[in-house]
Structures are given as C-alpha cells and as structure tokens.
Write a structure and sequence with these properties.
- This protein is an alpha/beta fold.
- The chain is built from eight helices and twelve strands.
- The strands form three sheets. A five-stranded parallel beta sheet has the order 2-1-3-4-5, sandwiched between helices.
- Helix 4 links the parallel strand 4 and strand 5.
- It is elongated, with a radius of gyration of 18 Å.
- The relative contact order is 0.11.
- This is Stage 0 sporulation protein A homolog.
- It comes from Heliomicrobium gestii.
Length: 235
C-alpha cells in the first residue's frame, strides 16, 4: 500500500500565498507536492510528473481551470479537487459536470482541504482493491470489469471518472433495484462525501452521455420517478 510520502499531489493556484499555504499543509501531512500557478504549467507538470491527485483552482490567468480539468479527464481518472470562489449550487454542480470529483469553496480552511484530499485518496485506493466481478449486459454490448476499473461499450473502452465508475458499479450490481440519491451517496460516494443530492444527478447525466445510444431515452440508467435511479437492463 502506498504511504503518504509515496503519493504525489499537484496543487494549482494562481495566488502565491494560498498555494504556499496549501503546499505547506500537504507536505506537513507527508505528501510529495508540486505547485503550479497557471494552466499551462499545470498540464506540463501533470504529464511529466503523473500525480495521484490534483487540487485545481477554477480561476487561472491563462487556461481556465475548467479547460485544464477537461484536458486531464481525457487522459486520466485521477481524483480532482476543485477550488472555486463561486459558491452557488449551480456553479458547484457545473464543476462536477466537467469531471471534478469534489470541490471546496473559497475562503476555505486548509484543514478542510486536507480532509477532502484524504477522503478522495481513500476512495481512490479502495476502488483499486481487486474484486473478481465482471458484468455483461445487452448481449455483451456493455461490459464492466470491476477489478480492472474498465468499461467497454460495443467493444470500445469508455473513459469514466472515479465517481462515475463507482455509481455505475453500484447500480449494475443489482439491475432493476431502485436507489434514492441518498442511498447512492452512501453506497457509491462514502460516508465522508459532502455534497448536494444534485451532484448525483450530474454524474448520472455524464454516465448517460457516455453509455447510452440515446441519452434522452436511456436504457441502462433509468430514472425512477419519485425515487431516484435504477439499472434497467438485466444481465
């Protein structure tokens, strides 16, 4: 198992004092940390250094945090903790829709950031524990391999975030069973998840865009009105 000093965290923040503060707390916890003050530098460090987790400010002076998040999500499923000064629920849900796994609003306590970092890393490592499960649906058009964290649609790999993968596996384990948003948070996101029920809706919307032939008329991830969601295709 990786120790803290084996774990690399890339912190991206254009305010030098804030970046220094976050970096100091991370290093005090024993993490290996690299800092960046703009989007181009962040992408370069990500590709050269391959961090285990990214702390990403939404407002950057060159490339926006949103665009950095989009580009990294095309290449990796590492946990992304987004920092945002926009505290409205719609802004937070928008951040999750870009591929972030969690968010912290400014001003924030460094201790809160540390708690979110530890929770994301805990969930990320738990996702990588070997589980001898494979689910095949729709005459093998959709295949989910839990141990490999791999999803195939029509034989082609589908890139999912860690949160999307956990939600999909939770639903696919019990086709036809309706889950409330609260149950999905408990089962897929963990007790330490601190977010809105609407974040589940955002992850579900992203999953439909990636998996469904017709996202507006989903077959795999079906809305159960008045309850929540279920997996609609039997194995």
């Amino acid at each position: 198992m990786l120790r803290h000093n084996d774990l690399r965290i890339l912190a991206v923040e254009d305010e030098a004092n804030l970046l220094q503060l976050v970096t100091a707390y991370l290093e005090q916890e024993g993490f290996s940390v690299k800092g960046a003050t703009n989007g181009r530098e962040a992408l370069q460090h990500f590709r050269d250094w391959r961090p285990h987790l990214l702390i990403l400010d939404r407002m950057l002076p060159d490339i926006s945090g949103e665009e950095v998040c989009r580009q990294i999500r095309r290449e990796s499923d590492i946990p992304i903790l987004m920092l945002t000064a926009k505290a409205g629920e719609d802004h937070l849900v928008e951040g999750l829709s870009l591929g972030a796994d969690d968010y912290v609003t400014k001003p924030f306590s460094p201790k809160e950031v540390m708690a979110r970092v530890r929770a994301l890393l805990r969930r990320s490592r738990a996702d990588r524990l070997p589980q001898a499960e494979e689910f095949r649906f729709d005459e093998d058009r959709l295949i989910i391999r839990v141990a490999r964290q791999e999803v195939l649609k029509d034989g082609e790999p589908v890139s999912l975030t860690a949160a999307e993968f956990r939600l999909l596996v939770t639903l696919a384990r019990r086709p036809g069973m309706a889950y409330t948003r609260g149950q999905l948070i408990d089962k897929a996101m963990g007790d330490d998840f601190d977010g809105y029920d609407r974040t589940i809706d955002t992850h579900i919307k992203n999953l439909r865009q990636k998996l469904e032939d017709q996202p507006r008329q989903p077959r795999y991830i079906v809305t159960v009105f008045g309850t929540g969601y279920k997996f609609g295709v039997e194995a």
